Amino acid sequence: MASTQWFSTTKDSGGGWRLDIVSLLAVIGESSIEEHSQAMTSSWTCLLPRIIPAPQVLLKPSRPTRMPQLPSSVVGIHNGTLVPTLNFFPNIIHPIEDLPAFGFKVYEIKHRGEKGAPPAAPASNEKTSSANSTSLDLGVLESAGGSEPTPLRKRTGTLHHMAQTLTFSKDLKPHIPTDAFSPLNIISMLSFLLSIGLFIGAAFLHDGTAMVAVGTISIVSSIVGYASWWSPALTKRVFHSKVPAGDVAIRTREGAFLIIKCNEEVTRELYMGTEECEYYAGTTSYRILVGFGTFLLMISVVLLGNCEFIMQAAIGGSYMLLNFSFWMLSLLNKRRFWDLSLYEWHDITPPDALNAHLTTSSLAEESASFTRTMWYAIRETKKIGWLKKMGAAPTTKQWDEWLQEAEDNAVKGNRKWRAVEMREQIVGMLKPSKMAEPEEDTAEQHVPAVEIDAPATR
């Protein structure tokens, strides 16, 4: 039978006020929530009043300015632009952490609905000296006078226009919203309905403490949700003057290479530009809201420990269910959370390079190696300047000679050139007697010339 008394009036007794450990369930699960915090606060569902595990994850003194990045070497094949990290969204399209050591992939990425393929680099039969060859100045120029670049369509989420109205935002940058039916949005809606059910149940049981606790901690999620509400803004190309083609090469720490065939617009948006976190609340407003949310969270945690037993069991079970749900989300591909329908991509890796990471025999040419994978990359791009730019190959006389021969054979279409064998003959180490020469500095011949930092987490 439900009690007619809404709030307890005693303390330090079996039926009075108490501080139970069940309230700790409200703040457990920080690791799972932290992993999904950016995607969760990028959707309008972060404004829903609901219970979420570990809301203190969102109560931070500052907010991230960019999406998470992964250490790698990203360079424009034709323009030579070099950045030391791979942005968040291209790593969703082609996760480089899934590439095996010495792996090789070629992707074509374009705007959905874009006609035609990105321009390919022209084959040049003119041989340049190995000391002066950079191949960066031979790239195709995308001309605004010929075909106009595909205009970048601005992807907006469900309530993006309303958010601009509420925050007086006039931003014209393209945004990538969360998927309308992403698992995070579904869990947020279910959590919202679960919170309503808990509030109604507390009212039915005349448990006023539980009603205030559930209402307060649900309001906290709305307050910190709005304070952290943001949208990922991409870099937009403003001027359409003549620029080199936008093809991109990526090298991983494990010696794998990715070649991305795309135009300059896609390159700016995904690879060379910055994925900025555009928040709807200003910095001062954010800190005020976080301070107020922290105060309400402390009150709600105290109240949760003083609910009736039935409501404590219901609230505790709800938090365990939500924690399990967020943990399950960690097993899903990140592509399920974001609406990347602006782009379409295809794996166009040549058949003779699909098994670059495999060793099929004891022969040098049949063994997986950094040199063989680097040759596959040169064979596809027909250029070598980008390799020096990203620090894949040393700038020594021997390596310059090998790179020049590799470029010449790539331009001629000699796909079966014995790259590893020629590397041994030109760079050295094939004959044991050469290893004993004290005047030869072998350190400068080491590849890659520049190592890539290891990722902080995996």
Report on this model:
- By secondary structure, the chain is an alpha+beta fold.
- It has 13 helices and ten strands.
- Helix 4 (183-204) runs antiparallel to helix 8 and helix 11 (397-412) packs antiparallel against helix 12.
Task: From the structure above, extract its key features.
single chain, six-stranded mixed beta sheet, alpha+beta, 13 helices, 10% strand, two-stranded antiparallel ribbon, 36% helix, 458 residues
Brief account:
By secondary structure, the chain is an alpha+beta fold. The chain has 13 helices and ten strands.
What share of residues is helical?
A: 25-40%
How do the SSEs run, as a string of H and E?
HEEHEEHHHEEEEHEHHEHHHHH
> Strand content of the residues, in percent?
5-15%
| Mean model confidence by pLDDT | 80
Low-confidence stretches: 117-141, 143-156, 163-170, 430-436
Quaternary organisation of the protein chains: single chain
Structural class: alpha+beta
**Total E-strand runs:** 10
Shape: elongated
* Euclidean distance between termini CA atoms: 52 Å
Q: How many H/I helices?
A: 13
Strand order of the largest sheet: 2-1-7-8-3-10
> Rg, please?
29 Å
- Quick one: biggest sheet? 6 strands, mixed
